[in-house]
Amino acid sequence: MMKFLSVRDLRNKSTEVWQGLTAAREMVLTSNGRPIAILSAVTEETLEETLNAIRQARAITAVSEIGRVKLGQPVPDLYLSSELNNGCPETIST
Length: 94
Hints:
By secondary structure, the protein is an alpha+beta fold. It folds into two domains: 3-40, YefM-like fold, CATH 3.40.1620; 47-87, no CATH class. It is built from four helices and three strands, in the order βααββαα. It has helices spanning 7-12, 14-24, 47-71, 77-87, and strands at 3-6, 26-31, 34-40. The protein has a three-stranded mixed beta sheet with strand order 1-2-3. Strand 2 and strand 3 (34-40) form a beta hairpin. Helix 3 packs across helix 4.
C-alpha cells in the first residue's frame, strides 16, 4: 500500500521520512490533501534505470492523452511501450 506524506510532515520529520522511504520504496507527497509529488528510493546503481522508467511512463501517458484528444480514442499502452523502447537510445553510464 502506498504511503502518503504531507509537506508539513516532510518538513518537520525529515529524518524519519528518509529512513522510512528505504522501507516503503515510494511515498506520495501531498499538499492540502492533494498529491503533488512522488518520492522514490534509489541508489547510485538504480538511479538511471529509475529515471528512465519514470520518463518512459510520462511519455506513454502524454502520447496516449494526445491520441485520446486527437483521435477520440486512447493509444494502446503496449504499442506505446514497444515504440518507445525501440526508439530510445541506450543510456551510457560514465
